[in-house]
Amino acid sequence: MSSLRIHRNSPGPGVAELGMVEAPEAGHGCRVCLVRHLAVCTALPADQASALEQLTGDTRLHAGELLAREGDLRRYVFTVQTGALRRTRTLADGRRLVAGFLMPGDYIGFSSATHYRHTIEAITDSTLCAVSHEGMRTLCATYHGLEHELMQRACIELDATRDKLMALARMTPPERLAGFLLDMVQRRQRQGLDDAVVALPMTRTDIADYLGLTIETVSRCFTKLRGEGLIATPDPHTVQLLDRKKLELLAAAA
Amino acid sequence: MSSLRIHRNSPGPGVAELGMVEAPEAGHGCRVCLVRHLAVCTALPADQASALEQLTGDTRLHAGELLAREGDLRRYVFTVQTGALRRTRTLADGRRLVAGFLMPGDYIGFSSATHYRHTIEAITDSTLCAVSHEGMRTLCATYHGLEHELMQRACIELDATRDKLMALARMTPPERLAGFLLDMVQRRQRQGLDDAVVALPMTRTDIADYLGLTIETVSRCFTKLRGEGLIATPDPHTVQLLDRKKLELLAAAA
DNA sequence: CGGCGCGTTGAACACCCTCAAACTAGGTGG
DNA sequence: CCACCTAGTTTGAGGGTGTTCAACGCGCCG
Hints:
The structure is a homodimer of 254-residue chains. Chain A starts with 5 loop residues before the first strand and ends with a helix. Helix content of chain A is 35%, strand content 23%. Chain A has helices spanning 49-53, 133-142, 144-170, 173-190, 204-211, 215-227, 244-252, and strands spanning 6-7, 21-22, 56-61, 66-68, 76-82, 85-90, 96-102, 107-108, 119-122, 126-132, 197-199, 231-235, 238-241. The relative contact order of chain A is 0.12. Chain A is globular. Chain A has two domains: 5-156, Jelly Rolls; 171-251, Winged helix-like DNA-binding domain superfamily/Winged helix DNA-binding domain (Arc Repressor Mutant, subunit A, Orthogonal Bundle). Chain A is α+β, with helices and mostly antiparallel strands and 254 residues long. In chain A, a hairpin with a 2-residue loop joins strand 12 and strand 13 (238-241).
């Protein structure tokens, strides 16, 4: 099905049936996880890192590779460590939706379905931490703080998704783009990165399918925001936020 | 703030500070709850109904009354017992979104925010079961099955909200309406009601703001579906599904 | 060089929105 | 009983906005 590749550092129970298991990755471990402060694992006591490590495996994807295909059986949940992925769905006639972009610290696994409802593919080379559903159940049963943390995050994601409804239903194209850029910069800040410049790893097509527009309209909106001095685009995948106040006004439709 | 009115059957701890508490309602209790099989409370053991009753209070709203206003402090979670409500957000310039309709069995409380992000108002006379956040924490700490059930429902709602993204971003007006009607009939089935006729308690304006359209476009879509023999509308608030297969094809864009 | 993927820009069109009016149903009061 | 009002829905006509179609520019790579 998917081109899933797993690097494991220690062969733990519950994930032994994984296909394509490769040699362990030197230097890997939850104790040195770069996104631990962002990930759901923060809910676990620090001295339980080794318990966690026994259940986790790394997944590495190159740009363009699939983590999952719509309809695949869901067997693992993931935390994005590095890179960027997109969650997409495509209709029979080709209409496509990008339901979201997945960045370091994001959790992939909030769904009630047994099978994937979206295709998830790497935009850039990415690494993820994988835990089987059984492993997750075990962890939740042992550490109730984890289930609570998951609940908290599911609510955050629900709030964010409801915000997107407003954008798609009632916001104009420039307003949607402004909101998108501010979202992206906020995620950078979460990672402790510079907040004046945004790197957009995705293509204009991805942005269009995310904002419910066409690539032409997205391109024209970039041009418009640039013309108004709100942003600068040294290259198509780099955006500088020149006037954040106005962008926020635009995005909030105040 | 809101015109919240609480009927209590037994003065339990944790909700005593409620304003506008009225006389207890005869015959009320979790044991006779009409939506218990639909509600999150299914996760609690049946013999614990009395423990639950001590924490719950009834809220009754007349059509048009508010359960909460955007920005209000969130102090309770609710389960809809009867009636119908809408969850809305309005921009400064009047653009409105109906983020969802709340029907019997629905849980109101999946949010990470301390304050309401939407206004919630009764479309028809409605009754809800209210539990304070503290009460909910107590219950979750005692019955882990409840937290798990909540998690499950949060995931279901997340899946449904993501589906709505696709509708708003890429579906045509008739497709959105077909999907909406099928959603509504599915909720009726959940309550064990007739599945050939749908009652639409909300106005065309509500539907329009839910589907990201104007009332005129919604009205024209009704006319179109009627003209194609897919539905009949004896009156504006009653819809018969004449050709469910075609409606499903339309809604799925197959 | 030539091909390709991606982004931008221009022109014409189509669709939904805006504006306007008619119609219905329900409620009030003369 | 009818006039009158209001709220909600439907239908029509015209205009605006995003889409569609097309062309061009750019960087990359064989």
